[in-house]
Amino acid sequence: MNRIAIVEENQAQGVIKDLYSQIKNQMGIVPNVIKVFSSWPELFSVHMSLFQTIMTSETKLPRSTKEMIAALVSEINKCNYCATHHVNFMKQYGVNESVAEMIRKDYRKAGLDKKTLMLLEYAEEVTRHAHQVTDGDVARLKQLGWTDGEILEATAVVAEFSFINRVADALGVELE
Question: What torsion do the CA atoms of 98, 78, 129, 148 make, to the nearest 10 degrees?
Fold first, then answer.
């Protein structure tokens, strides 16, 4: 149960109603983790714009890779809500079911190519110890073929999910 009041879909008005409608059209539902922002319309609007820019806009990183990072970060942060959803999104965006499940359990055993594996190792390091990331860590990613833009995107996905995991867990957001 959410620890704070949320605006339900049938109660939504104005900006919240418009955003709920947009989200429902895109996803088929309005997830609870989105509803938790409903009592602060300005934050809701800004956060949705940021989330869509990072996760749903067509960018340099494929959506499947972004979902791998989102699921991994959520698992590291022990956010069951987000890890569960993003494992499902991985499958939706083309990641084999057994690979998606293994990324959640132990991504190093998921049979990923070296390039992707190293990006996930980087995501883990940023999640756990961003202050310890070195020039060498980023240089290794570049040597494998990751571009500056892709590295920035991966870092932004980690940051987004470090934020949303904490909101979801602290406010008791439950799976739909």
Answer: 50
Phi then psi for 93, rounded to 5 degrees? -100, 25
- Residue 22 identity: Q
Confidence of residue 27 (pLDDT cuts 50, 70, 90): confident
CA nearest 113: which of 175, 64, 49, 164? 64
For 125-141, what is each residue's pLDDT tens digit? 999 999 999 999 999 99
Distance CA 94, CA 90 (A): 6
Asked if 118 contacts 138 with a C-beta cutoff of 8 angstroms, the reply is no
Task: State pLDDT tens for residues 114-129.
Answer: 999 999 999 999 999 9
Q: What would the two tokens of residue 42 be?
A: 């300005």
C-beta of residue 102 within 8 angstroms of C-beta of residue 71: no
What is the per-residue DSSP string for 33-54? HHHTTTT-HHHHHHHHHHHIII
In DSSP notation, 110-126 reads S---HHHHHHHHHHHHH
The amino acid occupying position 128 is R
